[in-house]
Amino acid sequence: MNYFVIGDVHGKATMLENLLKKWDKKSQLIFLGDLIDRGEDSLSVLKRVKKLTEEGAICISGNHEYMFLSWLDNPQKYYDHYRRNGGDTTINSLLGRPLNASVDGIEDAQRIEIEAADLVAFIRQMPFVVETDTYIFVHAGLDLSLDNWRETTNYQKVWIRQPFHQAHNSTGKTIIFGDYLTKQPN
What integer best gives the mean pLDDT of the chain? Predict the structure, then answer.
């Protein structure tokens, strides 16, 4: 099977559409997360990718989806962290406001849970890893120091960096992660 992999769209709907023009519609389409934050139109990106998954595409979670859900689940604790990582653009996009509108981290979390419930549910169901016979798809990486890489925490799957980049890949599979990077089995 052939794969067409897209990572880190970050709310850029035009960029997403340009990338999709290169997809042959036969290859398995896989998104590696980070659909939201920073860009101008997270709402359109989420709607488009959700529709594509309903047609057979796969979308795994990235650290920006992880931060978004952490904020929704505990806005008082996580809003400042989410805001510092571009979250206000997603909040305003989902609520149909100008991107530079003032955000109330607690009130807006409640509004999004109601007004964008279908998109929140879509993000909540995203897997953190997809494994095939020859590939492992993940947003950031895996803890390859474990006896069983499948025991990598979801947090690590979206946040791990150096330990993964420097580790020996003994999975027997090519790991596809982040910005179209691969880690070949050793």
Answer: 95
For residue 87, what are the CA distances in angstroms to 1, 55, 90? 36, 28, 5
d(CA 95, CA 59): 23
Contact partners, residue 89, CB within 8 Å, separation at least 6: 11, 37, 38, 39, 40, 42, 99
| pLDDT single digits (tens) 41-67 | 999 999 999 999 999 999 999 999 999
- Angle at which helix 105-115 crosses helix 87-94, to 10 degrees, equals 50
CB atoms within 10 A of CB 10: 21
For residues 42 and 48, what is the distance between their CA atoms, to the nearest angstrom? 10
- At 85, the amino acid letter reads N
Dist. CA 79–CA 76, nearest whole Å: 6
Answer yes or no: is pLDDT of 185 > 80: no
Name the one residue in this structure whose structure tokens are 């590939």.
135
DSSP line for 19-72: HHTT--SSSEEEE-S--SSSSS-HHHHHHHHHHHHHTT-EE---HHHHHHHHHH
Indicate whether 180 pLDDT > 50: no
